[in-house]
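User: Sequence recovery, please. Input:
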């Protein structure tokens, strides 16, 4: 195959006998010629050419050939990076440590997940005595569900009598789930088998469970066709799925999600309804009174609601109605109008993320500048005390059952791989139950939080991590990561992959952009729909801040984001290509005119808008990454990452973006690659072997193109 030579920083100064060493040159195979099919769409009088529409047909032979050739180009390039194997070895070394999940109690057993270090999937164990390691027994090993570790556990729920466990599994990272049932005592698999489940686990009730599913898709289109008309069914144990009872459907609204949930006492059954990723409606039925029809508890879809528990015949729920940072209210389902609500925990200056329950207490978990705070309340709304946390970080798993007198929760930060605490509810005392140790020294690193101005003057928080003693000379390799959407908050967490970069003198920055959930619904709304450009402006301002403060320079700055964050990276390299040296858009939403036509993409229209509406098209076309690539621009060295079983953000986004970017003349000679993983999806449940391969390839590409050699 014809070779093209790229000049990729011929000389690099590395620590080797204090001498300058000449860097080898890396060749890039010729990109495959992607045919143009001449498709033109008319959007309200504006003609838009979609040259690579054919790449949307992910099962076609010509697409498979294109994927194979692109992967060969990418892997031929990566194989030439001299320290790639060294990076993989170091990642494997520090990845290899025991990882524990938070224990939870079901019946007489405590259950928890553990990964010995390099197991592809974490294993579920149980014990009657959490203080006795010898009393532990294996309950479920997902690694035995497939030969290569690509089948993962998506959900597990226990029946109220603790006799059965419904296990949801996902294959090759797909959003499609299958559910089977285990006999808890014997751990044997029963005959119950449920298919075509998506975004739903099993909600147990009496001798069976509720679940949500779609109709079986057309053969060959399982991972691309739009999903419509979700339904809720009830499965009775020991029967065939074909006999499952239809509990709820809405024939008038094909593009809605429906999920069933129950209060812990099984008195109230809810149908949680949404038209997308923002805004909810909740229907309710009092099962203790044998009510036949659902009534509306919370009307959609202008606000968000989440049921926490019930207190007798009243229901407790969080909402952002008249409280963009959320509050907890008590609602009488017979008089559900908001004027009759009683506020139990009012809105505060910090974001109320969620409210856990356990032992007859409420545990509101707050975010203060993207870091967790936890309190204990009684059900009347009386504050009892704050639960002490080790520092700035993220807490998870706060909650249990009403009869529990203790709960377990976990805490992590950028340099803390995880601590699990046991909390005694009556006394309010927390003790460390388990600590995690990784093969690195956290004392060598420091984290700071800064607040920088965006384009419109809004102060944006950003975490910055690096080795202690960093010299601010503008020459430090830096990775800037962000998400900025769907009300999702980026909080402190531990990453093995990130540690390897920091060890090699890297600076890692995480910006908390608008569109996320760090400061509540107002912060979210400031980065959605026609205000989406704020998100890109926030990110660009973060890059400019890092350069201005001499953490790095444009020749030493890499950027990365996944999914909605992949859209962020795509938009920012097309808007400000000169600002970055390397870009890694992963599983990104890159075609903003057609994203809603695949699988569950329609659900994001509440966040992005839809090109089916002129007022939305007018702003989508301005930032859609695919449609803003220009000829003759020096784009950053780019490696697009996607996977063949991604049925959340279908790989066609990445395929078309790569083909378009490669077709344009690259003045600076930066490589444009696409890495397409096999038997993998959007990211959830990815086996350890693939996670390490992903990280090794990404960091090899990043470090090489930043002119850095691994120490």
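Assistant: Recovered sequence (711 residues):
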């Amino acid at each position: 195959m014809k070779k093209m030579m790229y000049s990729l920083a011929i000389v690099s100064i590395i620590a080797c006998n204090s001498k300058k060493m000449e860097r080898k040159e890396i060749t890039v195979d010729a990109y495959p010629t992607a045919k143009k099919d001449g498709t033109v769409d008319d959007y309200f009088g504006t003609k838009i050419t979609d040259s690579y529409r054919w790449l949307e047909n992910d099962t076609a032979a010509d697409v498979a050939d294109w994927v194979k050739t692109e992967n060969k180009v990418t892997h031929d390039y990566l194989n030439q990076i001299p320290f790639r194997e060294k990076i993989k070895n170091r990642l494997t070394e520090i990845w290899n440590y025991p990882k524990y999940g938070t224990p939870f109690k079901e019946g007489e057993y405590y259950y928890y997940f553990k990964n010995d270090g390099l197991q592809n999937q974490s294993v579920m164990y149980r014990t009657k005595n959490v203080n006795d390691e010898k009393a532990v027994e294996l309950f479920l090993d997902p690694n035995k569900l497939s030969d290569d570790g690509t089948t993962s556990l998506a959900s597990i729920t226990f029946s109220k009598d603790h006799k059965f466990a419904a296990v949801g599994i996902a294959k090759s990272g797909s959003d499609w789930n299958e559910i089977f049932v285990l006999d808890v005592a014997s751990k044997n698999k029963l005959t119950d088998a449920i298919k075509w489940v998506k975004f739903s686990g099993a909600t147990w009730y009496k001798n069976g469970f509720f679940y949500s599913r779609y109709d079986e898709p057309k053969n060959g289109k399982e991972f691309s066709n739009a999903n419509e008309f979700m339904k809720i069914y009830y499965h009775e144990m020991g029967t065939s799925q074909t006999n499952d009872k239809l509990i709820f459907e809405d024939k008038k609204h094909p593009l809605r999600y429906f999920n069933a949930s129950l209060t812990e006492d099984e008195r109230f059954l809810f149908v949680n309804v949404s038209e997308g990723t923002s805004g909810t409606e909740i229907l309710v039925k009092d099962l203790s009174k044998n009510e036949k029809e659902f009534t509306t508890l919370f009307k959609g879809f202008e606000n968000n609601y989440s049921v926490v528990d019930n207190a007798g015949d009243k229901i407790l729920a969080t909402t952002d109605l008249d409280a963009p940072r959320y509050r907890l209210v008590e609602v009488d389902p017979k008089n559900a109008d908001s004027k009759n609500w009683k506020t139990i925990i009012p809105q505060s200056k910090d974001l109320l993320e969620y409210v856990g329950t356990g032992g007859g207490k409420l545990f509101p978990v707050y975010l203060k500048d993207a870091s967790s705070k936890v309190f204990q309340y009684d059900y009347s709304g009386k504050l009892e005390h704050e639960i002490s946390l080790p520092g700035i970080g993220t807490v998870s798993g706060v909650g249990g059952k009403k009869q529990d007198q203790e709960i377990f929760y976990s805490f992590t930060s950028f340099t803390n791989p995880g601590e699990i605490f046991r909390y005694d509810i009556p006394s309010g005392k927390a003790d460390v139950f388990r600590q995690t140790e990784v093969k690195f020294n956290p004392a060598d690193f420091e984290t700071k939080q800064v607040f920088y101005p965006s384009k419109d003057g809004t102060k944006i928080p950003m975490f910055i991590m690096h080795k202690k003693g960093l010299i601010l000379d503008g020459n430090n390799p830096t990775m800037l990561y962000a998400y900025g959407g769907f009300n999702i908050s980026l909080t402190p967490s531990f990453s093995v992959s990130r540690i390897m970069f920091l060890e090699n003198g890297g600076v890692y920055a995480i910006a908390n952009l608008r569109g996320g959930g760090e400061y509540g619904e107002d912060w979210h709304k400031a980065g959605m729909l026609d205000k989406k450009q704020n998100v890109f402006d926030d990110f660009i301002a973060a890059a400019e801040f890092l350069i201005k403060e001499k953490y790095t320079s444009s020749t030493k700055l890499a950027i990365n984001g996944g999914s909605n964050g992949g859209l962020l990276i795509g938009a920012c390299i097309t808007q400000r290509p000169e600002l970055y040296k390397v870009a890694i858009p992963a599983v990104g939403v890159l075609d903003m005119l057609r994203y809603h036509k695949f699988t569950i993409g329609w659900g994001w229209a509440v966040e992005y808008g839809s090109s089916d509406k002129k007022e939305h098209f007018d702003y989508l076309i301005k930032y859609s990454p695919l449609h803003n690539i220009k000829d003759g621009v020096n784009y950053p060295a780019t490696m697009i990452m996607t996977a063949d079983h991604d049925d959340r953000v279908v790989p066609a986004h990445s395929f078309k973006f790569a083909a378009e970017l490669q077709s344009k003349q690259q003045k600076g000679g930066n490589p444009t690659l696409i890495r397409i993983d096999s038997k993998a999806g959007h990211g959830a449940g990815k086996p350890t072997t693939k996670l390490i391969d992903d990280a090794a390839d990404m960091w090899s590409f990043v470090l090489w193109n930043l002119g850095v050699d691994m120490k």
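The mean pLDDT is 93.
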